[in-house]
Amino acid sequence: MRCVIARYPFDLTKDGVMDSMKGIPPEPVTGESVTIGRRRYPVKQVGEIITRQDRRDFTGGEVVRAMVRLGFTCHEHPTATPVQVMTPLQSASALLGAPGTWEA
Question: What domain of life is recorded for the organism (predicted)?
Fold first, then answer.
């Protein structure tokens, strides 16, 4: 399939992309990602590998469009898991212990 990434045409195939990514460990996903085989890669990492261009030269959207057209599953930003943060009062209580147990 012919696609344009960073104003340059590329002839990509699903098998060619899978071969290019074989043996490459995925970087941590912080934004858009694509599942290739059983691994989930950031789209910028995939774009850099398949185009041999600097990541700053193309957008993630260009790579996502190409990957979807090739039949890969793309994902939006990862869902953030909520983290429970202690309030200042809870932090102080945890440091000092429960009231009434302090030694004067």
Answer: Bacteria
Please tell me the total count of domains within the chain. Answer: 1
pTM to 2 decimal places: 0.71
Burial class (CB in 10 A: 0-12, 13-18, 19+), 6: middle
Domain membership of residue 23 (yes or no) is yes
Question: Across the beta sheet with 39-42, what order do the strands follow?
Answer: 39-42, 33-36, 73-75
Domain assignment present for residue 66? The answer is: yes
pLDDT digits (tens, 9 = 90+) for 41-59: 999 999 999 999 999 999 9
Report the C-alpha dihedral over residues 23, 25, 30, 31, rounded to 10 degrees. Answer: -10
